[in-house]
Each structure stands twice: as structure tokens, then as C-alpha cells.
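thread: overnight batch results

M.L. [08:02]
morning all. the overnight job finished for the chain we discussed friday. pasting input first so we're all looking at the same thing
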Amino acid sequence: MSRSDGPAFLVSGVCCSSEEAVLRKALDRASGAGTYEFNPVSCELRLVAAAAEPAVLEALRVAGFGARRRGAPARRETFLARHAEGLTALGAALLTVLGMLAPAGAAHWLLGAAIAVGGWRVARRAYGSLRVRTLDMNVLMCVAVAGALAIGRWEEGAAVIVLFAISLMLESYSGRRTQDALRALMAFSPERASVVRHGEEHAVPSGDVRPGESILVRPGERVPLDGEVVEGRSPVDESPVTGEARPVEKRPGDAVFAGSLNGTGALTLRVLREAGDSAIARIAALVEEAQKRRAPLQTTVDRFARVYTPAVLVLAAVVALVPPVATGASFAVWLYRALVLLVIACPCALVIATPVAFVSALTRAARSGVLIKGGEHIETLARLTTVALDKTGTLTRGTPEVTDVLPVNGGRKEDLIALVAALEQQSEHPLAGAAMRAARRAGVGERLPRAGEFNAMPGLGLRGSVNGVTYYLGSRELAGRQGFLTEEVQRAAAKCEREAKTTVVLGTGTTPLGIVAFRDGTRHHMRHIIEGLRDLGVRRVLMLSGDRQPAADATGADLGFDAVRAGLLPADKVRVVETLKAEGGLVAMVGDGINDTPALAAASVGIAMGVGGTDAALASADVVLMSDNLAHLPYVMGLSRATVAVVKQNIAIALGVKLAMILLALAGPATLWMAILADDGAALAVILNALRVLAYRGRGHSSHPHKT
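M.L. [08:03]
and the structure it wrote out:
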């Protein structure tokens, strides 16, 4: 469902997926399915139509949930309000202990008070669940406590309420922990900016500053909006966006992200985007959107929980009725065992086993400069068997330099590089900048001839005219098509390509004019990064390149790739990815997010890197590495594998405890307080285990992107 423009509310009281199901049923009855969006992580409810607002708010109130309009001033949260669940559990626990120690006359009053204090929220939510015909954990707890009171087990009834109140407290605190981690992403952006208007500085809300205006960022201040440096130089810490801890020197013309921390110099920035459209704002919005998308494991667990609870309820009914009727056994004994099964039927630990871990992983990745667009991609990353990396701009630094200028037919080097630079200056290809720099070094950069009739030829090169003469500049394939691929050109180009250089050939008509060779250095630690991928279970690491085979092979051999595919056009890269998928296993494609969009879309998971939050990358890739540091690749794969391992551990803990308690309940030794204690213990174990993902640093210090 797309994000709507209707009113938005923050809902309180949704602790787990079973309560989310109650909320959705209440909303479906009040305004109809498809009239709202609900994010269970941020607890944001957004309506499609404002006309549904009164009915929705009333449905939420009746179901036991609170709501306030998003953006409206929130009442200052007192200590009592923030810790209501914990204080309720503490009060009920104290009353229960006093009731167990008190004489018989006062015991029932104290235990009854404990049940009332600890259970009024539960009873209210149970009532809301029954109104929408749902048997959730609140209903199960109320029935179990009522049954315990009916057979005179007041102490155990109170113990069930106390332990269940503790369970709700733990779920509430864990939910706040994950929500706070997400909000921390946006906390980096200051709410106010120093804007210069009519020559005077004004401190205004960041949201009031418009693109094109100038803002001042003093030493030690955080950057309030995305901008371009127009004056000043300073080291800037961009880790909130890129995950890179090392400051980057910024000078006029460089882009700076909102949320970055300015270093020792003052900067004047020209604002590029409004506050709500900054890179960090878009990252936070996409992370929040990603949290709505359920991973396959989470969907499977939720489906199992929907079958598990009714199945145990049926078993409880059979246990309560069949033995007394069939054998004349004590009804009270078997009713008690059925009540134990009711408590065991509560799926709390099971349904929170997966979402907390996946949300923690999404948030941890975002804080490290990696945007993952949903839990399903975490599962895919955890099971990757093949990784294909594009060469230009991905494996290489993206800043090639001219190494050779080789004129033919008696031409001059200065004339050749001048023509190449004149044609390239209208191109967006990485080689264009290198040609311009080489022309300036040769002393011809200020007097380049004017090129016209420019026409890019994807995968081959370009065509343009200078002084009325049409020139072709590009690969040997283009030279061959145009008829100026002579033996001399072939030999010179082949020699350069064996040295891992990229060559372009310039010609006009059927006459070659010369060759220009470029070399782009590979990124630091690439061999170590490839070895890290293999350590994580990746069986094949391939390099895809548009270069000719000799040049690509030289780079591939130097970095330790398993295979090299060269001479590829964008469509060829898609076919390579499809072939790799057909051979079995899951395939990741790593590219720049702009030129490699078709191959990224074809892969099992597309990974764009080094893009700093550009629209093209955010739209085309499943995973975005916000910096140029490819060490994020093994890091995010390690994080994904750790997350899936935690989820499987949580499922094993939850199901193991449930199975053990079911067997104990049927055999007789289990008690109500044992059942709720086991359920709470399992819930606490899976929550704490899942929250470990927030602290993930990698398999060894070298695996973390900050350490490479």
C-alpha cells in the first residue's frame, strides 16, 4: 500500500503482533480494510480518508488503545506515565507477597487487590479483543485467572497476573528501545539553522530554510540541511549518513549531508534540499518503511502462531472435559491442567522472536551507513552463494587518470588529448573528468575546441563534431564498426589492456587519430574484502566489466576473483546475472546504482554503493551502501547471518519452552505460576537475544567498516 496523505496518529498500547491483529480488526470494522496504514514498529497509524477519523478514534478507544495526532504537541511524559507497566507490575507483586504472608481473612482481599492492580489493563484489552471476536493473549490470561479463582487458587491467579504484567513491561520496554534507535537517526539533524538573509544572520527552524539559501555552520556544530560548500574548508564527520568514522575534508564545491558534524573550520553552505528531503531524512523514512515489510521467516512464524493458539485451546478443552467424563477423574484436577495449557497457549515469546531481531538489524545497518529495504533482503543476504561486482566505480575508485596518449599517422599528443577532452566534456562518463585533467596538464585545457552534435552510444562510446568534422571516440568495437581499427591501433591498444588499462580510440571517417589509455586504481583492501566474503560462505565472487578481456583479467587476477566476465554491455550484465541464478543459489549484484540498474533489479539482491543517498540508488537497489567503503559488504552480510541465526535461536527457545510445558501440564507437575514464569522467561530470553543485534560489530574487528 502506498503512503497516504491522510491524518496520522501515534498509537499506544500495541506491544506485539497479537495486539496488532486486534487493532487491525477493530479498524477494519470501523472504517474498512485498505483505509489505513499501520507501522507496528513506530506505532504510526495513517488514514486514507479524514472522514474516517472519528470512527477510527472511537474504535481504538473501545479496543483499549490510545492515540494522538502526529505532530501535535505531546503532553510531557511523566515518570509515572513512562513506567506505568513497570509500576503496575511492582504494585501487583507487592500486594501478592503480602497476600501470601497475610492470615486467611485478609489474604483474599490483598490477592484480589493484586489481581485488580495488575490485571485491569489486561481485562480492558481482553474486552476490546472479544468485541472484534479475537482470542488474544489478554483473553487467555483473563480466562486462566478466572478459572484459578473459581477453584480456589487465589495465590496462583495473582501470580499469573503479576508475571504477565512483567511480560507486558518487558515487551513495552523492548519496543521503546527499537523505536528510540530509529528516532536516533533523525536526532542528528539540528532543529534550527543559521541562515543568511539580506546580509544578516538569522536563527530559524531548519524546516523554514529553502533550497538556494545560504547557511552558516560553525566549528563543532552539526549540519542542519544537505548543502554544497560555497566558502570555507573543514574536516566533516559524515558517519550518521555514510557510517564512516574518519572525517572527510570539505572544500568549495563539495556536498555535505545534514546530520554531519563540522570539524575545526567554519563553512558557508548553499542549501540543496529541504529538511524533510535530506539524505538522512530519506534514510530514516526508508528504514521505517522497510520495517513494515515482513521477512519470510516472520510470516512463517506468524502463520504458525495463528494455528498454534487455537490448537492448544482445543487441547485444553479436551483435557478439561474428556478425562472427567471418560474415567470419572476429578474435574478440578483436570480443569487446573487445562488452565495451565491456556497460559501455555499464549504465543508471546513466539511472535516476538523474529520482529525485534529484524528491526534491530535494519536499525543497526542504518547506523553503520547501510540501508536495507526490508527483512526479506536480510534473509537473502544471509544465504548468498554468489556475489558479482561491477568493476568501474565499484571495485575501482571512480577517479581514473590518463596514462598514455598515443597519436597515430604523425599526429601530436597535444592535439589528440585536446580533441578527446573536447568530445568528453559533454559526457557523464568517469573517463571524461580524467581527459579534462589531462588536457589541463598538457596546457590545452583553456583552449579546447567547441564540440557539437554530441551523441552518446551506450556500451560503445560517443560521436560528436568539432569544426564541422565528425569524430568517433570509444572502444575497439566502435573503431571496427567505423572502419578505423588498423593493425597499429590493435597492437597499441592490446599492449595497454594487458597492463590493466582502459583504452579509447579516436577516429574520423576511416582514419584513426590515436589512442588514449586510462587506469583507475582499485579500492583499498579489495583482496581482503573478497576473502571476507568467502569466509562468510560465498562460493563464487565474480567481476563484471565493460573493459576488454585482457584488461579485466589483469585486474581480476590481482584482486583474486574466481571469474571475470568482460566486454559486457548493460544488457549483457543482466544475462550474466540470470545465468548465475539459473546455475543455482542466490546472487548479489553490486554496482553504482545508476548505470547498473537493470543488473541490480535482475539479481536476488541488488546492492548499490558509494552513492550518498542519491535518488537513483535509493530507488533501484535492495541494499544501499551509503559510502565508497566496500568493507560494508562483508559487514552487512555478517550482520544478516547473525540476525537470521538469532531468529532461529529465538524460535527454538520459544518452541522448546512451550513443548516442555505442554508435556509437564499433561503429566501433572506443571502449575499456573510455572507456566507463566516459563512464558515470561522465554519472552525475556528472546528479547534480550534479539537486542544483541543492535550491538553487532562484525566477525572480528576487521569486519566492521569503521575498522578497514
